[in-house]
TrEMBL record, chain A:
The protein's name: Cytosolic iron-sulfur assembly component 2B
Protein source organism: Piaya cayana (Common squirrel cuckoo)
Pfam families documented for this protein: FeS_assembly_P
Transmembrane segments: none
Record field: compositional bias (Basic and acidic residues): 20-29
Automatic annotation (TrEMBL), chain B:
InterPro entries: ARM-like, ARM-type_fold, MMS19, MMS19_C
Keywords of this entry: Cytoplasm, Cytoskeleton, DNA damage, DNA repair, Nucleus, Repeat
Upper classification of the organism: Eukaryota, Metazoa, Chordata, Craniata, Vertebrata
Similarity comment: family membership: Belongs to the MET18/MMS19 family.
KW Nucleus (keyword) present: yes
Domain MMS19 C-terminal intervals: 249-678
Quaternary structure and partners: Component of the CIA complex.
Protein name in UniProt: MMS19 nucleotide excision repair protein
Localization annotation: Cytoplasm, Cytoskeleton, Spindle; Nucleus
Species the sequence originates in: Piaya cayana
Gene name of the record: Mms19
Principal localisation: cytoplasm
Function in brief: Key component of the cytosolic iron-sulfur protein assembly (CIA) complex, a multiprotein complex that mediates the incorporation of iron-sulfur cluster into apoproteins specifically involved in DNA metabolism and genomic integrity. In the CIA complex, MMS19 acts as an adapter between early-acting CIA components and a subset of cellular target iron-sulfur proteins.
Entries under Gene3D superfamilies matching the protein: Leucine-rich Repeat Variant
Amino acid sequence: MVGAGGGAPLENANPLVYRRSGERPVTAREEDDEVADTIDDREIFDLIRSINDPEHPLTLEELNVVEQVRVKVNDAESTVAVEFTPTIPHCSMATLIGLSIKVKLIRSLPERFKLDVHITPGTHASEHAVNKQLADKERVAAALENSHLLEVVNQCLSARS
Amino acid sequence: QVFQTASEKVETECLAALHALSACLSRSVLSSDTEDLLDSFLSSILQDCRHHLCEPDMKLVWPSAKLLQAAASASLRAYHRVTSSVLPLLLEQYTKHPQSSQRRTIMEMLLGFLELQQKWGRVEEDASTLLSLQAQVCSVVFSALTDSSVQLQLVGIRALTVLGSLQGFLSPSDLELVVDHLIRVTLHEEDSQSSEAAMEAAGTLAPIYPKVFSGRMVPRLEEELQSGVSSSERDEESSRDCSSLRQRCLQALAAVSTHTSIVRETVPVLLQHLRKVQKGREAGSARDVVFVCQSLHRVALQCQQDVESCWFYHQAVVPCLLAMAVQAAVQESARPLLDKVLLEEEVLAAMVPVISAATTHLSPELAAQSVSHVVPLFLDGEVSFLPQNNFPCSFQPFQDGECLEAQRRLVALLMAFICSLPRNVVIPQQERLLRELLALTCSCNCPFTATTAAKCFAGLVNKHPAGQQLDEILQLAVNTLEPSLAEGPRRMQALTLLLWVTKALVLRYHPLSSRLTDKLLGLLGDTELGPAAADGFALLMAESPDVLHKGCHADVRIMFRQRFFTDNVPKLVQGFHGAGPDVKANYLKGLSHVLNHLPKPVLVTELPTLLSLLLEALSCSDRVVQLSTLSCLQPLLLEAPQIMSLHVETLVTKFLSLTSSPTMAVRIAALRCVHALTSLPTAVLLPYKARVIRALAKPLDDKKRLVRKEAVAARGEW
């Protein structure tokens, strides 16, 4: 449905919507008590794909902002790298989206992991600045002290009813 | 206010105010020399709103449309005034905007106005703008149906349904086009959403234009159905396509059977197709038969409200299904290992709802007619009433003999029929039938047959009039199952019979039910049957889909679950305390099944007494006990947060410690309980927030993915 009238116009009023992937099927191996399951790309993707976009009633997956191919995890070395693609090159929400992804990963992964969240190269006008902010741990922590910002981030992270 | 859309509530009230103003002005009396107040009012609204509908970026189209619709819905006069200005504009805009998403918005606005027309019923020739634009409206709607965008198709289908319901709007040639479009979308549109929407639209419109649908749609569906079956399916992909096309034909035939005359056309087609597919031997044949049964079931449900359709359906379908099944069973008896599709469990299970739905709404007189044929069929092999009844040997499902095993399975069909009859229908030879069913369930080797016979027996016993005859047969049942229950190879079968008979009696508050329940409680301590007995409590409390429920006229007394709870939970608690460690879990399982089916208000009042038991059980080292307690507590956290709040300290401590259990299933259940804790009041939870979040960091690194998943969900909520 076309966005509500009046107020601030949406930047991207008619985004392209992508199909959601289904639930990950459970394998027999995963149900075996004895065998350990390594953390793989799909698992990280499942953590971030249902994050809501701040502007549209759609998820980052449906907007193709995050894709599984752009998620790289190495369980043994405790590293995660996520590239995300804003829907349009001047998207003012890019920092907020990046922050939401980072917070979701911080809350959902063991402490040992080093997180790298950045914009897909060449897809945003201010990607250098945004990437720098997201990589700065102190700036991220300070941002989350801002209760209004935290509330917006929590809304993006809450499951859609 | 509406253009700003700050708040939905404000918007709703504004639109309601506009509607009321328009309605009020519509009642104004017109005279030749004074101003037409309504007209001036509407003109000013049109002036403000109309131009927004033409804006290329379509920013304010929705608020404008809502305002115009609110004003137009007040009266026929207002409707005519607004639509004469707006409809031509919308139609023009549709052609101007080529993008599907924009066309969808315009179509939805158009639909809003069309739906208002439904209020006024018949489209009047002289005043109606709609009628004068008939050709354009139809062309726009048909173009939506041929668009590639699924969303646009769906709105188009909805618009089609509204247009079809307007008396006098669609011409006969338009109708034919409508049916052709619906057939095309149903059968050949790739997206299943569109296909299903088209089927539902056909179902809605068919009662209004039965001749067109039965004359045009049904023959086409029949043709497509038959062509699919006869062509040889060479490769996997084309056979998959054929199979999905057949499936759609079957679904469409059922969906469109919403009028008596159409039912008379579609039922023979479905039965004919069933005859074809049940002959098949390949792997997919059972599934094909199940699809046809599902369609037949839907038609049966749609026939229930109309006496004529109901009787026609019953007479056409039930003897036919019985004949096919008997034929298959008898042939299998004569030459075993033919592997008849119709005798497979899943197929018989699919036929049960069909026969049941065809029987529940019969009038008592007609039901009596039918039962006078079906009972002799099963008891005496009386096949004369069946169509095509020359069978190679006799049908004797209740006789002994290994070759008769295939015939005995058909007791499922007997159950479907006889347990769905209205209460006051007299069943001929009922005592003999009950005795035969009892003998069958205790002696036969096949679990499916034994269970079905037990269910059939229970269904009959539940409706049996009280008195000496009932008591005698119940005593016979108890005498028969007690020795088998004590020891031997048939303990599980005896337990199944016990469960179903107990259920039948619990539902009708029969005095014997308490003796039987005590027997069941005793079995919770049995090493072999304990777990099955515990799960039996779920069977007693839950709604069964095929027998012993209100829909099939069973005797279900009000609040039977509460009564069962009051009578038996103290015994369960006592049993738990006295039980050995290896069977304690059974008592808990039984308890949790009873609790899970209790209405919320009762649960909440009883919970305080049970909670200490459940918390004690959490400390039990047996993992099965832990698991059943956790699964019992989780719904309680969601449903009775105030009471659970009193024990939050214990709950948090125990749940967190169980997240380190060596058993994966326990870790998962514990994490789910930690998640469920978040439904407690925030004030109660805040003191524990930091501790829980810290403690949940560990399971995030659990070696099992399924555990990690639950930990992420719980930690995120906290």
